[in-house]
Amino acid sequence: MFDKILIANRGEIACRVIRTARRMGIRTVAVHSEADARAMHVEMADEAVCIGPAPVGESYLRGAAILEVAKRTGAQAIHPGYGFLSENAGFAAACAEAGVVFIGPPIEAIRVMGSKAESKRVMSQADVPLVPGYHGEAQDLETLAAEAERIGYPVLVKASAGGGGKGMRVVRAASEFADAVAGAKREAKAAFGDDSVLLEKYLGRPRHVEIQVFCDTHGNGVYLFERDCSIQRRHQKVIEEAPAPALPDDLRRRMGEAAVAAAKAVNYVGAGTVEFLYEDGGFYFIEMNTRLQVEHPVTEKITGQDLVEWQLRVAAGGTLPLMQDQLTRRGHAFEARLYAEDPQREFLPAIGKLVRLRPPAENEHVRVDTGVREGDEVTMFYDPMIAKLIVWDEDRDAALRRLRVALAAYEVVGVTTNVGFLGAIAGHPAFRAVEIDTGFIERHRADLLPPPAPVPDRGLAIAALSVLLRRNADARKARRAASDPWSPWLSASGWRLNDDNHHDLRLLDGDTPRSLTLHFRPDGYEIEVEGRPAIKAERVTLEGETLTATIDAVRTRATVVCQGLDLTILSDGAVWRLHLDDPTARAAEQEGGSGRLTAPMPGTVVRVLVEPGQTVEAGAPLMLLEAMKMEHTIKAPAAGTVSAVNFAAGDQVSEGVDLLVLDVAEGG
């Protein structure tokens, strides 16, 4: 076994590998960018070395620099995690040349399975079932269009290299094909340095079922059962579970055996995942990921195995810890991926400081894999994952209840997250009933992403009580410091000369003003919200950011985080955001020109589709912006005339800058 390994990654997967290595008595070396100098994985490792500036091309993708660190620190092996260099055959070859063990499969297996087209050719020879498609080398539009006609629409255009939904387009008609291919090729080139694509028949309502396989250098190969990863948005997984529900046992076995056959066809070694689409009793190979998957914890929970330990033992030349007939599974597990992103804005990544980050308590049923802590920054440079929340119980219904409770307990303030969206999926009747496929989110979009609702009176009352109690605390400090500590003018108790003791507050719920009046009573408070019957609050306390009160006879506990005049209230899984109204500040913030179209996040302008003076209709595409390796279309919010285009193709833009100005037509 190794004495020291280097982890060529960052974030939660680097922390995950370090935990297992530490348990096994293996020392660890972390590499990091300048932006990650104080990151969690850096502080967890025994040693850490900076390898360059923040951009991944200047740090985490610098294979030569990483190998130099391994040589300098005496690391005998490199664990690549997932992403970055994990499926880079060139890096694996460089490791071999340097005499450092690459904790992954053989170079040729990475190369073959890294090409979706070539992997499908090999799988066809190994009698692994395939979706009808085109995986040829010819990439001219004429050939691709002819193949699409042969396959029959709808077809899926897919980058041959890489994954994660990048370089992928669904095309439903021949008239859309050319634009879809061009867009997929641009994304593929930007993300993977290879713009080749393949075509597949687009299945109507398939499930995404994948098999965890493991092979060693002694000819042994096993499958550690399956995972269902059907809940996806933009072809990226959101919630995964194991085992896949409602599958016949015979089908599970056949899929597992096919996956092992796929691995052995390329002389595979180590951890890998063979992904299938499943529909109407048939299953079809789509790709193999030659690394540890993001969702591997659900397999660990149902098998009781540590897959990172398996990786280390196999890479060190050992045999698989267990053979197929020794592997068992128990119970059911879910994983939910918590991201800093805005589901209401097409899941655009969010950046900012994690002002508050409190996960649910971990125990045998709840596990949290993360690479960030409270106070850390989510930046534009890296994947915006905050954590993976994993839950387990004896059956699917029980595990799903635990997932809903754990999501409701997760507190994140400072960045917009998808926690509420995940909770909506976990609570959806169709999800509970296993009515799932890869189109689940789009089909139930109206339920999962309803328009933002006004903050309820209860949330307003909690916010108002928090503001008042904080003012009381500040007033007490002022009295202690004042020359006349008993002056009523320094009191925040609501005292009024010849008047009822009360406080008037005005909160902004988005752009909507909400008015409240708090009346002091001997046993607590009465809160009037916009003239409605008063809410009664008793036994109100505020300790730090936790407010406890009995509101209309119901005991309530909520977290209220203040950032200047901004208030974030977290209560029973709900998140409400309010702003303490300051008319002067609000007037200063008013922006003119509703036709100004701003960048939703930092990125690069790919194409400008209009020019000044051009008339456009509502919804017309105006500009393509690439951000986080995905293309985003800036569309006209209303009919009008383009009066200014502020950037050209290739320009870098910051979040919030004005990209274009649109003079909105009257009535538009």
What would the keywords be for this entry?
eight-stranded antiparallel beta barrel, 668 residues, alpha+beta, eight-stranded antiparallel sheet, single chain, 18 helices
Task: Describe this protein's structure.
Strands 14-13-10-11-12-15-22-20 form an 8-stranded antiparallel sheet. Strands 24-25-26-27-28-29-30-31 form an 8-stranded antiparallel barrel. The longest helix is centred in the C-terminal third of the chain and has 25 residues, at 457-481. Mean pLDDT is 91; it is low at 494-499 and 584-594. The chain has 18 helices and 39 strands. The chain is α+β, with helices and mostly antiparallel strands and 668 residues long.
* Total of helices: 18
Strand count = 39
Largest sheet: 8 strands, antiparallel
**Coarse morphology:** globular
Low-pLDDT runs: 494-499, 584-594
Work out the strand percent.
25-35%
Distance between the termini: 69 Å
Average pLDDT confidence is 91
Question: Briefly, what is this?
Answer:
The chain has 668 residues and is of the alpha+beta class.
Can you lay out the helices and strands and say which pair or pack?
Elements: E1 4-7, H1 11-23, E2 27-33, H2 40-44, E3 47-52, H3 63-73, E4 77-79, H4 89-98, E5 101-102, H5 107-114, H6 116-125, E6 133-134, H7 141-151, E7 155-159, E8 168-171, H8 177-192, E9 197-201, E10 207-215, E11 221-233, E12 236-242, H9 249-264, E13 270-279, E14 282-289, H10 296-303, H11 307-315, E15 332-339, E16 341-342, E17 348-349, E18 352-353, E19 356-358, E20 366-370, E21 377-378, E22 385-393, H12 396-409, E23 411-413, H13 419-426, H14 429-432, H15 440-443, H16 445-448, H17 457-481, E24 502-509, E25 512-521, E26 524-529, E27 535-543, E28 546-551, E29 554-563, E30 566-571, E31 574-580, H18 583-589, E32 596-598, E33 603-608, E34 615-616, E35 621-627, E36 630-635, E37 640-645, E38 652-653, E39 658-664
Parallel strand pairs: 1-2, 1-4, 2-3, 4-5
Antiparallel strand pairs: 6-9, 7-8, 7-9, 10-11, 10-13, 11-12, 12-15, 13-14, 15-22, 16-17, 18-21, 19-23, 20-22, 24-25, 24-31, 25-26, 26-27, 27-28, 28-29, 29-30, 30-31, 32-39, 33-35, 33-38, 34-37, 35-36, 37-39
Helix pairs in contact: 3-4, 4-5, 12-13
